[in-house]
Amino acid sequence: MKGLLLNAVETGEKLEMIYQSNKGEITQRIIKVEKVGEDYFRAYCFTRKQVRTFSMSNILSIGPLRRYRRGA
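-> structure tokens emitted (72 positions)
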């Protein structure tokens, strides 16, 4: 997971994440990672429209942003 985050910093790629807060609230977010630390990382959250700090241990799922296509 850390490799994915570091790669996203270098490429500027947006990631899709399912995150559980310390209060137990589960949210799905689209983020752009800015800085990666040992246990935490900082990213712009498009859901909250602000820079947030996330704990790596609270990530339930993370991966590249999927592009949805309609039609045949």
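The first strand starts at residue 14 and ends at 20.
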